[in-house]
Amino acid sequence: MNASEFRRRGKEMVDYVADYLEGIEGRQVFPDVDPGYLRPLIPTTAPQEPETFEAIIEDIEKIIMPGVTHWHSPYFFAYFPTASSYPAMLADMLCGAIGCIGFSWAASPACTELETVMMDWLGKMLQLPEAFLAGEAGEGGGVIQGTASEATLVALLAARTKVTRHLQAASPELTQAAIMEKLVAYASDQAHSSVEKAGLIGGVRLKAIPSDGKFAMRASALQEALERDKAAGLIPFFVSSPGPTRVSGPCHKEGLWLHVDAAYAGSAFICPEFRHLLNGVEFADSFNFNPHKWLLVNFDCSAMWVKKRTDLTGAFRLDPVYLRHSHQDSGLITDYRHWQLPLGRRFRSLKMWFVFRMYGVKGLQAYIRKHVQLSHAFEALVRQDTRFEICAEVILGLVCFRLKGSNKLNEALLESINSAKKIHLVPCSLRDRFVLRFAICSRTVELAHVQLAWEHIQEMAATVLRAQGEEKAGKPPCGAEFPPP
Amino acid sequence: MNASEFRRRGKEMVDYVADYLEGIEGRQVFPDVDPGYLRPLIPTTAPQEPETFEAIIEDIEKIIMPGVTHWHSPYFFAYFPTASSYPAMLADMLCGAIGCIGFSWAASPACTELETVMMDWLGKMLQLPEAFLAGEAGEGGGVIQGTASEATLVALLAARTKVTRHLQAASPELTQAAIMEKLVAYASDQAHSSVEKAGLIGGVRLKAIPSDGKFAMRASALQEALERDKAAGLIPFFVSSPGPTRVSGPCHKEGLWLHVDAAYAGSAFICPEFRHLLNGVEFADSFNFNPHKWLLVNFDCSAMWVKKRTDLTGAFRLDPVYLRHSHQDSGLITDYRHWQLPLGRRFRSLKMWFVFRMYGVKGLQAYIRKHVQLSHAFEALVRQDTRFEICAEVILGLVCFRLKGSNKLNEALLESINSAKKIHLVPCSLRDRFVLRFAICSRTVELAHVQLAWEHIQEMAATVLRAQGEEKAGKPPCGAEFPPP
Questions:
Q1: B3-79: CATH homologous superfamily?
Q2: Splitting chain A (485 residues) into consecutive groups of 10 residues, what average pLDDT does each group show?
Q3: How many cross-chain Cβ pairs, A to B, lie less than 8 Å apart?
Q4: Cα nearest neighbour of B419 on chain A
Q5: A82 contacts on B by Cβ (under 8 Å)
Q6: Which PANTHER family match (chains A, B) (predicted)?
Q7: CA-to-CA distance for A46 and B118, rounded, in angstroms?
Q8: Residues of A in contact with B202 (CB under 8 A)
Q9: Domain boundaries of chain A, sorted by first residue
Q10: pTM of the model
């Protein structure tokens, strides 16, 4: 394909993309396919001769779309939102065309420098403490990671290196393995599995700290665990927490690396009314959230800041000759390969630049506030129905709710909802209770979609409750051939 | 921005992309900017109010392009190629629009299933042993990682878990730390820094094995290191090698995990005449190469295969026991989050699908062969000039060469070439010799570009040699105000 055919096909693809997103409401949000559906639909080997673009485009609707879970449908309320916006897509097109690999400043100065400045812009939007910004002479700064999992792992590895060097400076006879054996990282018992994965990869033990009534790590529980572990000869070194408020005290006092991972919630901190959730971040060593979740920057774009960039570069720096360049020790330049796990990296800051400028801070704030309003609207609907209960305080765009009753009943409700495929939800477990999550996700979701979703949930609930009532009354549930004994 | 504005702006962007790539030869390959150039050119904070698309597009030429290293210029011969093709860019547009996060089968079945089948297609193109393919009931299979660094780390962690469990099964009293302290991984002394990084992250020691005249790990040197380390009570467990040929014997014999990382070279193995470089891969546990380097699939797309998928999922799977189900290991359901470091992942197999179909295997082979021909053409030019020498056998698209003479002389030559900015090269170090690398990179590079590049190098060499001659003769070098003492 040459440039002239790309001009034509690219414009067709732009229309396909616009058609897809304009018409997404009409597509069933969750697919009908069974595992293994795709393999029989396509050849077993790549073609020897080139095929036409038309043939491929045709196959998109025939082969791909029937198996897509439509994350941007306004009836998608599962997991967490993943960002999608037209400005970000335009920026990604440019990113693909420039196609530079920005592992060092010299590998493409614009790629590195725009990232540093965009991370400063975003840090200021969040009112991050000055210490996290790169500025012109700061010791901190931001970096775009692929995912929050990688940010957590990078933070944990930096903390591991720091504490190891510190201990070895005092006691040079200590081996790395002898230290690692005693290191302990902490996270809330409600923490994301990424923290557990980071501990596993980093080869250190991870302890879960009981959470409070709001599912946040309790400071007193953390303090108790620290005392107990220190008394047992262990070495606490790292705490990962979705919010800094409760844990910054103990971390500061004990000199632990505090990593704040607000993967989803972080976007909301650009609104002054939610910024208090980030109070205490001044005591953190690293902070991370995902603009690719809720700030309209398409995946992947996970924003991570550190107070001391040398903590990261000290953990990862390896400088082979072929990657060295003349400016690298000037202090002025940033080689982002030392801030991350991979070597290669795309020009992802273009997406931030396009989105921040085309929405403006006010536009982004309005977007966050609309989603929060929608979740409260859904919460209000649930509260009006006495068969249901709300299971956790609704703060941002997520509502955890369930039918009053057994886990089995709620499992049946979720099963009936996801089988009907009018909307899509996933469950979670809160203190052993099976709970349904209703997350405001799509950029295009409106109050009408939320209301329709709620009516649908109510209908499904009525059916499930009726089946349960009949079962209790000894009648055969619908479809059962024999009454229970 | 709504769909209708996106239709307009998206088409403008398609034209911008086509213009950029059609005109890239006219742009200076390496930018003129100094570190810190960008910050003064843009505001210190994000705008409060939305800006127009026109304002942003204007800034691309004013602010971004002056700082871009043009990796797709036909005068870019630095690092390694990074892939760029129109079909891949079209696929990326679709990937952005669908915007699903394919961490599990259910999160978007098409995203998972197309990836498994595309990795089979690619595995067959490379004539990988059947054991690496997923097929319908295989125990192996492929996964798209972000980079070769991640693939190496994933392989090392899987091997670490496997050997740890094995040893603990025999001696349950052994702690993980006690085992990790003794684990040793091996790589060639010419290996990529990513192996060193993986060892650092995984908390295991890495030993460099001397390479032979062709810069490949010597089997005898590996065998000696293994014997020495075992005698010292250490536990060899992992070998990373760019080619399997020499090391598969010792690895097989000693039961070590062999990871073959052919990041760049791997693409060439789709041509029968280069496939012999992969002989011995049947003894490897994992194999990886980067279609995003040389197979026209835009970054990121690093293809990794394993013989036993449970080796990966066993290392990373964090599903609690009570969630396991009978089909989990059947090969029917793949949850790729257990195969990689991050949780989230994009629909990257679309790029493979578009590229493989629109080029066809023959088109891809022709592309590889053309690049190899160009590197041999450059090699022939170098060999005709007795002032120069070739420093390593030219096998694929990379030519390592230098002026006969000191490292200082060659550093001066590279410096003069990269200051002139007509072409862009980077150096490497081969057995302490400073060597210039000439890598065939751009999709659009032709013999004429290679010839022009060589003429330019010859001119620069003449100047550098003249300066050296004058210096030796006691004359002041050009530009020096005082003769040396």
A1: dopa decarboxylase, N-terminal domain (1.20.1340.10)
A2: 96 98 97 95 98 96 97 97 98 97 94 97 97 91 96 95 92 90 90 86 91 78 94 96 86 92 95 95 96 97 95 74 58 83 94 98 98 98 98 96 97 96 94 94 98 98 92 59 43
A3: 430
A4: A326
A5: 99-101, 344
A6: AROMATIC-L-AMINO-ACID DECARBOXYLASE, GROUP II PYRIDOXAL-5-PHOSPHATE DECARBOXYLASE
A7: 8
A8: 201, 203
A9: 3-79
A10: 0.94
